[in-house]
Amino acid sequence: MLVVHHLGISQSDRIVWLCEELEIPYVLKRYDRDPKTRLAPAEYRALTPFGTAPVISDGALVLGESAAIIE
Questions:
Q1: Which label site among 5, 18, 64, 66 has the fewest CB atoms less than 10 Å from its CB?
Q2: What is the CATH classification number for the domain harbouring 15?
Q3: In terms of Cα–Cα distance, which of 41, 69, 71, 43 is closest to 54?
Q4: Where is the GST N-terminal domain (predicted)?
Q5: How far out from the chain centre does Cα 4 lie?
Q6: How many C-beta atoms lie closer than 10 Å to residue 44's C-beta?
Q7: Do 53 and 28 touch, CB atoms closer than 8 A?
Q8: 54 preceded by cis ω (within 30°)?
Q9: 67 Cα distance to chain centroid
Q10: Distance, C-alpha 39 to centroid of its chain
């Protein structure tokens, strides 16, 4: 199952919108940024060392960068 890892205040909304429009089934996993530093939490950075968003995963595949995901 496709998992959209959604980091608050990011471009992850694009991927959620795409999945909804194309009726692609997905699970949304939300992460909140640190309120003081605005950085991604450690659990999210485990997916992508830079802590950038969006990220999707499907089994062993983990893919970041909205343009790459949309392709």
A1: 18
A2: 3.40.30.10
A3: 69
A4: 1-71
A5: 5
A6: 21
A7: no
A8: yes
A9: 12
A10: 14
CB 4 within 8 A of CB 12: yes
Joined together, the tokens standing for residue 57 give 């995963």
Q: List, for residues 10-40, the tens digit of each pLDDT value.
A: 888 899 999 999 999 999 999 999 999 999 9
The amino acid at residue 11 is Q
Distance CA 49, CA 35 (A): 19
Alpha helices in 1-71 (DSSP H): 12-21, 42-45, 66-70
Domain range for 48: 2-70
Domain count, the chain: 1
Q: In what order do the strands lie in the sheet with 61-64?
A: 26-31, 2-7, 55-58, 61-64
